[in-house]
Amino acid sequence: MIPACLSDDFTLCPEREDISAEFTRLLTAAQEGGATIAECLMIARQLKRGDEQSWHREWKKLAQANRHRAEAAFAEGHLVTAQRNWLRAMNYYGAAAMPLDPVDERRWVAVLAMQECARRYLSSRGPTGEVVTIPWVEGHALQGYFLPAPWANGRSPTVICVGEPGHRKEEFLVKLAPHARERGFAMLAIDLLGEERDDYIDILLQRRDLESSIGSVMNYLELRSDVDFDRVAIVADGWGSSFVARAVLQEPRLAAAVCDGGLWDLHERSFFASRFAMSDLSIVPVPHAPLMASSAECPVLITIGEDGWLKADRAQQIVQKSRLGSSDIVLKVFTAEETGAAQAHADNPSLANEYIFDWLESRLGAAGRRI
Asked: Which structural domains are found in the chain, ordered by start?
C-alpha cells in the first residue's frame, strides 16, 4: 500500500520540490545499498503534513538506528553488515540535513555525523579507504575519500568523482563506488567544500576558477604509487558541475571525462543571442569557452535524460553543430522507455552509471582480475 502522503507517482510533497527530489534519491539509492525501500516508506508514513521539522527529525532518528546497528555488528566482527548499515546511516544523515538552512547548527551536526559514518565505512572495507586532504587555493583545501582498487597490485586505473559546487562527496560512496569497484578501478570522491560548512558555498560561487581544483587533484594523484596516472578519468555528477568541462580543456593528463561537455554554457549563449538578436555569439557574456567549442585532448561522454531540463533534440542539435572533427564526444540520451530519463537520471541512476562505467572501462582498459 502506498502511504497516504505519497501520490501515485511517488511524489512525496508536491509543494516542496526539493523534498520530493530527495525522497526519490533515497528510493533509488536502495538499488545500490544506500537505503532500504521499507525504511523509506516507513518514514513517509511518519512525516507530518505541515510540520517541516518532522523531515529532519525522522531521518535523523532512522540514521541513528542504522548507525547503532553498524557499531553493534562491527563489535561482533560482522564487517559486511556494519559496512551496509554505515552506508545507510550516512545517506539518512544527509537526508536529515538537506532541507535545513546552511547556517542551522543542526545541519552541521548531521553533516559531521554523516562524515563519521563515511570514515567508519572506509576504515572497515578492504582494502582500507583513506580520507585525503588536497591543497587547492590559499586558505582552503579540498577533501576526498580515496578507495583503492579491490585487487590492488601495483598501479590501478582511477576515476575522480566530483559533484556540483555545494554537494558533498559522501553520496558517491553509495552511488558510484560499487561501479568503480566491480570494474577494478580505484576511486577518488571529492567535493569543493573541504572541511567548511555548507554556507561556504556562497564564497565558492564567487570564484571564477573552480576548474583549477581539478588540476590540484591531478597533481595529488600523480604522486600516488598506486595510481596508473596514464589511466585517470573524471566523472562530473550533475549539470552544475560544468566547471569540470572547463577543466578538461586545461588538463591534458586526463584519459577520459564524463561531464556536460559545455552543453549548458552553449545553450545559455544561444539563448542570450536569440533574445537580444545578436548575430555574433562570441560577444555573448559566457565566462568560459565551452568544451565543444574547443579541442579536448581526451574522449568525453555526455549523458542526458530526454525528460531533463535540456531537451534531447536541443542537446543533439548543439552537439552536432559544435562538434569538431578532432573531438571524441559521445552523447547518450536515456529515454522514458528505458528509464534514467529524468534530470541527472534521478529516476534510475544505476542504469546511467552502468553505461558510464562501461564506457570508462572501454576507454581506460581492463583493470585486471574480476571479483
From this structure: 1-123 (1.20.1440.110), 126-371 (3.40.50.1820)
